[in-house]
Amino acid sequence: MIINSQWKVTQGTIFSCAKAMGIEQSVLGLIITARCDLEHSKSSLVNYVPILSFEQWLDLYGNRLIINDVRMQILASFKQCIADLGEAKTLVDAFPITDILTKFEGLGFDKSKPKPYAKFVECGKNVLTITDPEFRIEEAPEDIKKRFCRLSEKLHKDLVENRIADLHFLPATTPDECCLGYVAMLREIRFLNAEIAAELSKGLEYHQYIELVSELGADSSQLALTDESDFGMCVGELVSPYIELLMQRLTTVFSRIGVPDYDRSLLDEMATHTNKKVRL
Q1: Which burial class, exposed, middle or buried, applies to 78 when counting CB atoms under 10 A from its CB (0-12, 13-18, 19+)?
Q2: pTM passes above 0.85
Q3: How do residues 53-72 score in pLDDT, each as one tens digit?
């Protein structure tokens, strides 16, 4: 899947000192410009997508996705608790949670149902916990922690199996690398001047980069080369057929066409027809 850098910038080349939205430090980048365009210098710009380590992606995006899913689950449970007590689920859309827990508990909820009422109170407290701006999963009740763990396992599985449309998982960026993997951000397409990209194959020091940017009149924020300690270089290459898979998924992200779903009644009619055939 990954080979050592061939010291040539081509589609699939992985390089250092790339930039990514929301991250101050440098990340890795993966070249996505067509091989023929690079080989024959057909383009003045070379495109790439940022690659974050799994740990970077988890801290920046992953944990937030999981917490949002936990929040939605708990809110759905709370709405069901309200319905179990004979009230409308839309109360949640009309009143603050604290108002529902205090003002409405004695104004309509049926306390003759102790178990549903106890569950309602517990779910309400969980909603308040998960929606608190200062919420920290480390300090959450056990129920919320268990939900978080279950949903995190699902997210990790979806990520590794490349089931998340705008992300692409890579197990490593160099041969024999032992790590938790990397995440290519397919929606965040960035660019380099072709001359700057070409220098990465030789290794690009900070002062060389600044001089080249000045000569080209280019944007100096293309790479995260900010001082003498930074060094841009090719570190690996994603090879066939794995680079083609990534490119296929990348184009799908931007070419998907949304159409209305089929009416549910059609599926019901199909099921009825099939059941008649087998005489169920």
Answers
A1: buried
A2: no
A3: 999 999 999 999 999 999 99
